[in-house]
Amino acid sequence: MKTAFKTLTLVLAAGLCTAARAGLFSDNFEMTVVAERAKDAPAPQDGPMACAVVDGGYIEAGDAIAGEDPPPADFVKSQVEGALAQQGFRAGVSPALLVTYHWGILRVDHQQIRVPYGINSNLDARINLVSTDATGAEVENHILGKEKGGGQSNDASSPPILVGPLETIVENARKPRYFIILSAYDYASVAQHQPKLVWRTKLSAQETSGSMPEIIPSLIAQGAPFFAKDILLPKIVEASITKAPTYPQSDNAGPQTAVASSDSGAVDSVVKQEQTQFSGNGVAKG
């Protein structure tokens, strides 16, 4: 009897251990997708669209943690350009779009001063990463409404209780997240120093999903079908850590169209503004 009991105990323990390891070392993770088109953006065109692609830079914002090992910038560039090309955004002589991308990790910044009756820029960046403009405004109105009952955006409601997607946004914003954000602007408007956003896609996953060199290319490859799409609410997609695709030269199209030297100042201005916004190093809201 003792031998049988001991055998059963070992079998059960082995089964529990296997289940725990399967959960701990799973290659699956949840990808949060936020994809929006500007309200006045023209309808997506059929066929390839010429674009210039600019790396806005790596962002590591919030509490500093030693040992973060991001993938090489050139590798991220090749993945972004290949994924864009497969979705019909290719290099061209006269680009119709300027596509910028920023990537990295966003954490809570416990050193940033809390703003009385307001929302500091780090919290604002974390909320915006995982929300659409409309849902993010609702969440922030809720926070501001609880604090002072004023200062909210008149374009969004101020729900007394957050439920459903709004509650999910708050939960996701609390956790450190790897991300990549792609923004497409009408190229002519950028050259005229009046940048007009056409679409923006934000892809992110919890830091615990895997290592950054694994998660960033997985976000790009599996999030590519959402480029230029318009989705009403943030979407949770089951994704998996996969080997980074090797794009054919015809898809990758080599180096993307260079920004004209006469437009470089205007493009730099857009990129710097995005860096401030996405990293949460801007001014408080309230």
CATH architecture of the domain at 32-109 and 175-279: 2-Layer Sandwich
What is the number of strand segments?
7
Beta-strand content bin: 15-25%
Percent of residues in helices: 25-40%
- Major beta sheet, specifics? 7 strands, mixed
Which features does this protein show?
286 residues; alpha/beta; Double Stranded RNA Binding Domain; 7-stranded mixed beta sheet; disordered N terminus
Please characterize this protein's 3D structure.
This protein has 286 residues and is α/β, with parallel strands linked by helices. The chain has a domain at 32-109 and 175-279: 2-Layer Sandwich (Double Stranded RNA Binding Domain), CATH 3.30.160. The chain is built from 9 helices and 7 strands. The protein has a 7-stranded mixed β-sheet with strand order 3-2-4-5-6-1-7. α2 runs parallel beside α7, α3 crosses α5 and α4 (133-147) packs across α5 (165-173). The longest helix is centred in the N-terminal third of the chain and has 23 residues, at 2-24. It is globular, with a radius of gyration of 22 Å. Mean pLDDT is 85; it is low at 1-23.
